[in-house]
Structure formats: C-alpha cells, structure tokens
Amino acid sequence: MKRRVITGLIITAITGVVLFAAPAWAFAALVTAFIVLGLNEFFLLIAKEKIPVNRRLGIILGLVLAVATYFDYKIPQDWLFIFIPVICLVIFIVQFTKRDKGAVLSMSTIFFGLVYVSWFLSFLIRLRTMALGTDLLNKQLVAYLILVTKSGDIGAYLIGIRLGRHRLIPRISPKKSVEGMFGGLAFSILVSLACIGFLPLFSLSHLLILGLGLGALAQVGDLSESLIKRDCAVKDAGKTLPGLGGALDMLDSLLFTAPTFYLYVKVFIQ
C-alpha cells in the first residue's frame, strides 16, 4: 500500500505539472511515453503465449500513431482513413520477411495492440489539443477525465478491500468484488458532481451521466486488461511502477473512458 500511494502521488504530480504548467506538446510527449511503455508490456504479455509477434514494429507504429495524432491539425482531416491501410501494408510487408508460422495471428495481434493501447490512449492527446476556444478548458477536461476515471479505481480498491464479500467475475479477476464495483461507481459519480465549479460548461445532469458512464467504462477497462493478463497467466503487466505493476496496469481504466469522453465533448461541447 505504501509503495502504491507513493508511486501514485509521484505520477499524479508529474502529470499535473506537465498538463497545467507545460505546453501541449509536453503532455503529448508524456502520453506517448506511456503508450510506448504500455505497448511494450502488451507485446511481452503476448510473447508468453508463444505468439510470434514483431514487438519492435508494433511499438514503432504505435509511436507514429501517437505523434500523428498530435500533428492532426497540420495534416488532412481524414488522415486516419489513409493511415490505417498504410499500417496494414507495412505489417504485411514486414511479415513477408519472416518465416515463422502463424502470420495471421501475429499481424492481428500487432493491429489489436495498436488499437487497444496506442489509438485509445491517443484520445488523451486529442482532448488536450482539440479546438475548444481556450487552452485552459482543454486542460480542465483532461484533468476531469483522469480524476473521474482514477477515482473509480481508488474507490473500487478501498471498498473492495474493506467490504468486498461477493466475487464479481472470479475467473477473470479473483479479487474484484461486487461491493468494490459499486464503490468505484459511487466514487466516480461523486467526484464528477464535485467538479461542477471546475467545469461550469457541464450541468449537474451531464456530470451525473458522465460520472456513471465513465465510472462503468473504467471498470470495464480494468476487467479487460485482467482478462488479457489471466489468459497470459500473469498477475501484473510489468514492474515499471512500484506498487502499481506496469504502465498498462495504471492506464487500463483510461482505455475506454478517453475515446468515450472525447466523443461526448465533440457532440455536446465543441
């Protein structure tokens, strides 16, 4: 617990300083660094399943996707429709040089890793750089997303440890409980509602909907990564962060909330 708290506080401080005191490119660089760490851990997990995957290629493509997301405003608006076929082409061409069996499985794994880690997390960069009128609003929206998502993690952990009696989905995550799930949802909703003064553009009804929706998706993201780890027979995705496990263990709850919140902002705010 002590290492978990210390590591969490350090990461929170670094993220807060980079988000509010540094330019947008610095935050994009931080997210990109986490994407690279997450992809590396993901492909190492896949390697435990004896799947021949080109880890270096996957990380490079994930890095390019994150960088392209930051420079989105300088390239054609529909660049993603060109970029995805190009990625597929590159993966195929590189696979031509391999003699390993399981080409389809290997290429599918790389593409899934790019979507699951790089593309989903790149919505944090999109949220920070989208045109909303003021740079401060972008920062506030990113901070809100992280606060609501991670508060759900904290609530599920604390309530689950103290009150957890009924296992949620034991075949996927033996320690997660029904009580922890509701505790996480309650924390996300309360933190979302508490941001009414922080985000005046959102009404209480919007904050209630977002708290419930993002809180639920955060737990789905956590369970999704647990499913992958369970299949690969490991407890943590890595050992990068003392007390927390790997970078992917810390980021898993943001994988579904980031694109969902970005879309919500695009529809109701922009």
What do these coordinates show?
With 270 residues, the protein is mainly alpha-helical. The protein has one domain. Helix content is 74%, strand content 0%. The protein contains 10 helices and no strands. The chain starts with a helix and ends with a helix.
Question: Could you provide a short overview of the structure?
Answer:
This protein has helices at 2-21, 24-47, 55-70, 79-96, 103-129, 135-163, 178-194, 204-231, 247-251, 254-268.
Tag the structure with descriptive keywords.
270 residues, mainly alpha, 10 helices, 74% helix, globular
Question: Which percent range fits the helix content?
Answer: over 70%
The string of secondary-structure elements, in order, is HHHHHHHHHH
Structural class by secondary-structure content: mainly alpha
| Mean pLDDT over the full residue set | 88
Largest sheet: none
| Straight-line distance between termini | 40 Å
Number of domains: 1
Bin the strand percentage: under 5%
What would you call the shape?
Answer: globular
Present the secondary structure layout.
Blueprint: H1 2-21, H2 24-47, H3 55-70, H4 79-96, H5 103-129, H6 135-163, H7 178-194, H8 204-231, H9 247-251, H10 254-268
